Amino acid sequence: MGSALWASVELDIDGRDVGGITMSLQPGATVSGRTVYDGDPPSAPATMRPRVMLRPVSSPFPGTEQIATIGAADGTFTIAGVPPGRFRMVLASSPLPWIVASARVGDRDWLDDAIDIRVGESISDVVVTMTNRATSLSGVVQDPSGRPTSEYLVVVFPAERRYWGNQVRRLAQVQPDSTGAFRTSTLPPGDYYVAAVTDMDPELLGDPAFLESLVAASIRVTLVAGEVTVQTLRVSGRGPASGLSAPGFRRPSD
């Protein structure tokens, strides 16, 4: 992608032919940074190290993903030829048991907040932190009589509403096993709501209005880095909250 060039122009279309348009190709921006490890770095080969991707949120070039592999020797990475636009950083293919903790540009975490890349601007100070200290939430779902049940889906979503609707990093849905036990180790540290839900369309997790309707029927928990938080969800048997037509959910108790 280092040789990629881009060009764009704004046009007003009013039903008449438009001609004489000139577009000048320009080189894209460069995004670069380094990887640090919260613990002793792994000895995995370069092919097992994370891939760094910039996924466009809004851009004149939708659908394009810029990809770079973190260097095997010193952990640095470079993504060249990035067109202007608003991008979210995504990391994949981490060597287990390592997971991505953050991707910071100054005081902003690029995993949580999309960042604007402007014309002629390059970003050279991205710090990606990897950790092997998994943050986990586990527990058991119980019916109103206190017996374990697998009939409900456990939904976990962030307490901070600014995260609603724009990412999946802080969302989890877990189907309990036959003993009612559930566990997730994919969420970053922070404050969350946990609810027991029935008949849910997974796409609703991206709808802030739906998440708002779940708050009153949820338990709030705090996940701490490197620790396992245990939470029992006992379904109270009370019906769906007023105004919630579908899907149904039940209020868990502490």
Explain how this protein is built.
The protein is mainly beta and 254 residues long. It has 2 domains: 5-131, Sandwich (Immunoglobulin-like); 136-253, Carboxypeptidase-like, regulatory domain (Immunoglobulin-like). It is built from 1 helix and 21 strands. Strand 8 and strand 9 (108-109) form a beta hairpin. The chain is flat and about 75 Å long. Mean pLDDT is 81; it is low at 239-254.
Annotate the secondary structure layout:
Elements: E1 5-6, E2 26-27, E3 29-38, E4 51-58, E5 66-69, E6 76-82, E7 85-92, E8 99-105, E9 108-109, E10 115-117, E11 123-131, E12 136-142, E13 153-158, E14 172-174, E15 181-184, E16 190-197, H1 208-215, E17 219-223, E18 228-230, E19 233-235, E20 249-250, E21 252-253
Parallel strand pairs: 3-11, 12-18, 12-19
Antiparallel strand pairs: 1-2, 3-6, 4-5, 4-7, 7-10, 8-9, 8-11, 12-15, 13-14, 13-16, 16-17, 16-20, 19-21
Q: How many individual helices?
A: 1
Overall average residue pLDDT: 81
How much helix is in the residues?
under 10%
Shape: flat
Between the first and last Cα atoms, what is the distance in angstroms?
52 Å
Which fold name fills CATH's third level, the topology of the largest domain? Answer: Immunoglobulin-like
- What is the domain total for the residues? 2
CATH homology superfamily of the largest domain: Carboxypeptidase-like, regulatory domain
CATH class of the largest domain: Mainly Beta
Structural class: mainly beta
Strand content: 35-45%
Order of helices and strands: EEEEEEEEEEEEEEEEHEEEEE
CATH architecture of the largest domain: Sandwich
